[in-house]
Amino acid sequence: MIDSVAVLGVAAIALGMVLTPGPNMLYLVSRSVTQGRAAGLVSLAGVALGFLCYLAAAALGISAVFSAVPQAYTALKLAGACYLGWLAWQALRPGGSAPFAPSRVLPRDSSARLFLMGLTTNLLNPKIAVMYLALIPQFVHPGAGPVWLQSLLLGSVQIVVALTVNALIVCVAGTVATFLSGRPVWLRAQKFVMGSVLGGLAIHLALDRARPAVV
């Protein structure tokens, strides 16, 4: 149905994006550091439901809309590139924030609220929208079988990678924050690496001329 190149391509992009700072990472880290791993995992469950919503939308053929209206597809990619570029600037600018930097104390929230905030954060995350509407469709080939099934399979690869990495981040967030709080050089290095990766993704997305698969 789908070849190994497509699977590895989606997995690599998913890994690169989940390791770069964005709304999901910032929210999960902040909750894990201030309220504990259990709160972080509940928040991650909400994030997971958000992924499933995007996956369902992709399987329903939303990418076909962008094939029919290429200007909308281009606008989405440029918006995504600008957003990633802004995140890169936030990390690289003097005084910019880093995901694992010591944060202010946040109020404790109930499990229901943590789950809902995780879901909302992911649904409003432009980086994930770009992933499903602009990047994954590039690995879909109509000749390889039903487009909706390929979208489901490739989206599932992204979800597995994202949830695995985010679960690890939740589990080590407190330890990493404590480690970095007393080591400003390491904190600056983390910000530089994250900002550079974000900037590279922004440039790649802005210059890429690929189009989504036509159903």
Structure notes:
- With 215 residues, this protein is mainly alpha-helical.
- The protein has one domain (4-207).
- It has 9 helices and no strands.
- Helix 1 (4-18) packs parallel to helix 8 and helix 2 packs across helix 8.
- The longest helix has 35 residues, at 147-181.
- The chain is globular.
- The mean pLDDT is 77.
- GO terms for molecular function: amino acid transmembrane transporter activity.
- It holds the Pfam family LysE.
- One of its GO terms (cellular component) is plasma membrane.
- It is found in: Cell membrane.
- It is a multi-pass membrane protein.
Compact summary:
The protein is mostly helical. It has 9 helices and no strands. The chain has helices at residues 4-18, 23-35, 37-59, 62-68, 70-92, 111-123, 126-135, 147-181, 184-207.
Describe how the helices and strands are arranged.
Layout: H1 4-18, H2 23-35, H3 37-59, H4 62-68, H5 70-92, H6 111-123, H7 126-135, H8 147-181, H9 184-207
Spans of at least 5 consecutive residues whose pLDDT stays below 50 are: none
Proportion of strand residues: under 5%
**Shape summary:** globular
Structural class: mainly alpha
In round numbers, the mean pLDDT is 77
User: Helix tally?
Assistant: 9
Counting DSSP E segments of at least 2 residues, the number of strands comes to 0
What fraction, in percent, of the residue positions are helical? over 70%
Secondary-structure element series: HHHHHHHHH
